[in-house]
Amino acid sequence: PHTTVMIGNIPFSYNRQQLMEELHALGFPRKTFDFLHLSEGKKGTENRGFAFVNFIQKSTALRCFSRVTGHVWQKHQSAEVKDAAVCWAAIQGYAENLKARKRAVTKRHHPTSTPLSRGSGVPCAQTQEGLGFQVFRL
User: Fold this and answer.
1) What is the pTM of this model?
2) Contact at 8 Å (CB) between 136 and 121?
3) Can you tell me the distance from the alpha carbon of 38 to that of 53, in angstroms, rounded to the nearest whole number?
4) pLDDT by 10s per residue, the chain, length 138
5) Residue of 127, 133, 123 lying closest to 101 (CA atoms)
6) Nearest residue to 94 (alpha-carbon basis) of 24, 19, 17, 1
7) Beta-bridge partners for 47
């Protein structure tokens, strides 16, 4: 089932915490998704304008389309910032998203961004397979 969406047109200056706060305000608290990856730029100072979110339930992912599409971002507004756009991600599900991020980190040999996955947001003490990939506990 489709549970992973890509959210686009995120202001470049948003960080993961700000995105999570905005999603919460839109009716998607942390407990509704188990994976969030806000893609960072090459220098790691700004994001690339999109994020992947895997919702625990398909119905929540569907609701994301209606609640987030066209949303006007609350922080870091400028003339260049467009309304939010949502589409289904090419990679679906928690496990497949984790695999894809591990492959990307391995390919780069130096992670520039760490996805938030499963849990309360408290990182485990160890990184996943020594790749700098944090896994968060339920």
Assistant:
1) 0.75
2) yes
3) 9
4) 899 999 999 998 888 899 999 999 999 999 999 999 998 777 667 888 899 999 999 999 999 999 999 998 888 666 666 889 999 999 999 999 988 888 876 655 444 445 555 544 433 333 333 333 334 333
5) 133
6) 1
7) 40
